[in-house]
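Z., the sequence and structure:
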Amino acid sequence: MTAVQLPELRPGRLPRRVPVRQALCLVPLLLVTVAAVRHRSVLAAGFGQLRTASWPWLLAAAGATCLTWVAAAFTRQGAVVQPLPRRRLLATQFAAGAANHLLPTGLGASAVNLRFMTVCGVPLARSSAALALYLLAECVGRLVLLTALLIAFPDALRLGSLLPGGALGPLLLAIGAGLLLAAAALLLVRRLRTAAFSFVRTALGEARSVHARPARALALWGGSLAFPALQAAGLAAVGRSLGLPVPAAHMALAYLAATVAVALVPTPGGLGSVEAALIVALVAVGGPAAVATAVVLAYRIITVWVPLVPGALTLGALVRLKVI
């Protein structure tokens, strides 16, 4: 008999390489399934409302939703000096939208875009600075639009109606306490203070470099204004499709006020909190409660649930192709 020598296995190693990247491709779909099961009643009600809506207005809302990814791509490119590959940047924004609805608000999209910029060769410090600049520009753009609409229509919405009675004081107290804790940490922990100051210097340098290029500055601030404007336009289009008796500008004002009010709520994509705030805001601008509820459910179906599966598939494909 002939002896057959078996290959030696090194201790601590598996005989085959574990397909970690392939397994990660399935994680987004698993999270989508979990989210769909948890919100199945909302899904059923939302799709039920779409049957009675005017389809031309729904198509307009879908078009506005698609343009939000283009606006996000412009803003992301405007926040960094180094040119990014356009098609992959747009695909990343579509995938980041899905990640944003599966993880706490802002965390999913930020992680996807940070990884994308790093893969594109942007150093981590500059990628983080560009991410901070994007978030700042998006926040400023949303507040500028809200302020402009509040000035144009001062009697359209009572902001106090978006917060429960007596909630404003504790909210301001919590924000103040958080700021004090952050300041104390910076003063007492030297390593943290050094890292924070280093990041601020990098961020300011990146911001100066971006604004030294008119094309980058235009993309940054134009996209940051267009993004919330397109989201608000989508809600107004859905409102028109379901016959909500509220002017389109007032619906846009309600959307901006509601999203600002829930910005600090750490729920995945604002699921649950955004719907509640939008319904309250639409009622506050004069919409009947039943129709306002139908509008919000239909709007979230178009902007969140319909793109969620293709967005998750795109996210998995980008992971597999090592784009992110």
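Residues 289-320 form the longest helix (32 residues). The CA atoms of residues 101 and 271 lie 7 Å apart.

Let me know what you think.
H.
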